[in-house]
Design a protein that fits this description.
alpha/beta, 4 helices, 29% helix
Length: 161
């Protein structure tokens, strides 16, 4: 069995209109929600072997809050995750090492929401910022992960708590 956790980055700031999209930081709400959701996830006591993040500041900062809550698990920056569509996301997932059974992916919409729908055939609609989705696969390897092969086990968002 394989488990994929998909996390949309926390709420970002649009205060500096001259700042590039890539460099946008989290806003006040994002700085509140990211550690709260990381703690909430940690309390589930579900193992995660690998954390992967878009290198965009808002996604990476969100991932770092989760890494800290998970006892400083390393975060791997994957450039292909920045604003990725489902096809690009599936490629990254398919390249995960065989020995990794649980992985957490931090990124952006609309790609993440579309990926959840593609993998599970029952998406949750537009993933709210800092929401987490757990998808389980009976696949023996990540290369077997494809459309309709996942089961949406649970999802959580800051407003659910």
């Amino acid at each position: 069995m394989r488990t994929l956790y998909i996390v949309r980055h926390a709420k970002s700031s649009w205060a500096d209109t001259g700042m590039s999209d890539f460099e946008r930081p989290l806003n006040e709400r994002g700085l509140h929600d990211a550690p709260m959701m990381a703690k909430r996830f940690d309390e589930r006591l579900e193992p995660v072997a690998l954390l992967m993040s878009s290198p965009a500041k808002r996604a990476l900062t969100t991932a770092e809050f989760f890494a800290a809550a998970l006892e400083d698990a390393p975060v791997h920056e994957i450039p292909e995750l920045y604003l990725a569509d489902p096809k690009a996301l599936l490629y990254v997932i398919g390249e995960l090492p065989y020995g990794v059974r649980q992985a957490m992916l931090f990124g952006h919409n609309p790609g993440l929401s579309e990926l959840v729908e593609l993998l599970t055939d029952n998406g949750i609609g537009d993933m709210p910022t800092c929401s987490i989705v757990r998808i389980d696969f009976t696949a023996d390897s990540w290369q077997e992960v494809a459309a309709g092969t996942g089961t949406l086990t649970w999802w959580d968002a800051p407003k659910n708590g």
